[in-house]
């Protein structure tokens, strides 16, 4: 438990001060990188005593060192009402471990149809092989999810907004229904981060971040986290430990460095992305812009009600054209790297082709996803204007 000293302080203050205990930092500002496998004890008695509670105690390298504990505590402090946070070697490891901590054979999982593709693959592969059935639901279902819940439904997984198509989910309505029926709720909160959507406060049981994205913020580290409320914290720890999950101290150190500037980075991602999205929205070759802060985006009203901001990732649907015309747009971009992941300081683009099973994806033309970085938005817009020109020529 580490959010007790939150004391009502603001997000930016907690981002700067979270997890910086004197016994971990020494006289420096940041904790050093403690690399350890073996931890040495003064006596057999001390060794035995430590086994009773290893949380934030030197025990064995797999349970971490102050470098990881400091980051985990800082993430917990960003989630009022949370009991604790564990770190993982990637966002996918965080997603899969969180799911395994709440599911058992015979259970049924309700999974949002707009989920991150590897999350889907885990449900359709490993979970299914172990006797856990997944049913996909419309991201805009809201309280209507009640009709899908059965006596076997053990968990509802949400991702809001979806990271290709940006439907904003009615998390409070789903959480209320799940609580009434004893169903556990999990949220992939990578897009909003706790700054724009404090998930535990909103009633979610387990909230997941691909720290690889905005927490790290510099496109050079793989890391994940799960933050749990007190009801689910012990089960999460047990499952994580038995799966041998841990994160490297070097990666945790880099992620903590990124975390301190999350507030200023996100506000620039937000304003840059909004400038680009609003410009795209006025272009005749763009059918729709899927950005939660724009009215065209499914779930926009829910975003307005529940979120404190919008980050820098969104998509747009081209007006007609095919994959070749979309490729002409993308391949010539000068400031946008072509690549997966997002949340770093630099802009990225990918062609997106959503895979759906509850409701098929249909649109006026191909979909393009943008991660808007910290460049000057005018330069990004000029680059995209030239891209739309290439698209028009290729579309004919
Ligand atoms: C990238 C991503 C993940 C997985 O994170 P990795 O660190 O790449 O494993 C999970 N969820 C969402 C929404 C993501 O964008």
UniProtKB/TrEMBL annotation:
A UniProt-annotated Pfam family: Cys_Met_Meta_PP
GO biological process: one example: transsulfuration
Superkingdom as given in the UniProt entry: Bacteria
Needed cofactors: pyridoxal 5'-phosphate
Keywords for the protein's UniProt record, in alphabetical order: Lyase, Pyridoxal phosphate
Gene3D superfamilies cross-referenced by the UniProt entry: Aspartate Aminotransferase, domain 1, Type I PLP-dependent aspartate aminotransferase-like (Major domain)
GO molecular function annotations of the record: cysteine-S-conjugate beta-lyase activity; pyridoxal phosphate binding
Lyase among keywords: yes
Pathway(s) annotated for this protein in UniProt: Amino-acid biosynthesis; L-methionine biosynthesis via de novo pathway; L-homocysteine from L-cystathionine: step 1/1
ATP-binding listed as a keyword: no
EC numbers for this chain: 4.4.1.8
CDD domains referenced in this protein's UniProt entry, alphabetically: CGS_like
Catalyzed reactions: an S-substituted L-cysteine + H2O = a thiol + pyruvate + NH4(+); L,L-cystathionine + H2O = L-homocysteine + pyruvate + NH4(+)
Protein family per UniProt: Belongs to the trans-sulfuration enzymes family.
Entry protein name: Cystathionine beta-lyase
Gene name linked to the record: metC
């Amino acid at each position: 438990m580490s959010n007790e000293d939150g004391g009502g302080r603001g997000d930016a203050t907690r981002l700067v001060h979270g997890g910086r205990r004197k016994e971990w930092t020494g006289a420096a500002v940041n904790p050093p990188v403690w690399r350890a496998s073996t931890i040495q004890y003064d006596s057999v008695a001390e060794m035995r005593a430590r086994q009773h509670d290893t949380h934030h105690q030197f025990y064995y390298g797999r349970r971490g060192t102050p470098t990881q504990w400091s980051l985990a505590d800082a993430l917990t402090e960003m989630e009022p009402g949370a009991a604790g946070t564990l770190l993982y070697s990637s966002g996918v490891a965080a997603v899969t471990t969180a799911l395994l901590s709440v599911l058992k054979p015979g259970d049924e999982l309700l999974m949002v149809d707009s989920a991150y593709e590897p999350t889907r693959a885990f449900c359709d592969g490993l979970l299914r092989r172990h006797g856990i059935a997944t049913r996909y639901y419309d991201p805009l279902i809201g309280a209507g999810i009640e009709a899908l819940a059965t006596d076997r439904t053990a968990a509802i997984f949400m991702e809001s907004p979806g990271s290709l198509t940006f439907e904003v989910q009615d998390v409070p309505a789903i959480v209320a229904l799940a609580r009434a029926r004893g169903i556990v709720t999990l949220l992939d909160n990578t897009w909003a981060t706790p700054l724009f959507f404090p998930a535990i406060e909103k009633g979610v049981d387990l909230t997941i971040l691909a720290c690889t994205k905005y927490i790290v913020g510099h496109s050079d580290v793989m890391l994940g986290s799960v933050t749990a409320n007190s009801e689910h914290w012990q089960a999460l720890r047990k499952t994580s430990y038995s799966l041998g999950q841990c994160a490297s101290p070097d990666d945790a150190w880099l992620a903590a460095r990124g975390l301190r500037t999350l507030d200023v980075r996100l506000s620039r991602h937000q304003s840059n992305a909004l400038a680009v999205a609003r410009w795209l929205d006025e272009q005749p070759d763009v059918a729709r812009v899927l950005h939660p802060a724009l009215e065209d985006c499914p779930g926009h009203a829910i975003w307005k009600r529940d979120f404190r901001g919008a980050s820098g990732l969104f998509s747009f649907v081209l007006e007609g054209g095919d994959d070749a015309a979309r490729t002409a747009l993308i391949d010539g971009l000068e400031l946008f790297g072509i690549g997966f992941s997002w949340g770093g300081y630099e802009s990225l683009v990918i062609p997106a082709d959503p895979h759906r099973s509850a409701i098929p994806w249909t649109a006026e033309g191909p979909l393009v996803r943008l991660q808007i970085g910290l460049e000057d938005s005018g330069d990004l817009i000029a680059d995209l204007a030239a891209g739309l020109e290439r698209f028009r020529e290729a579309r004919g």
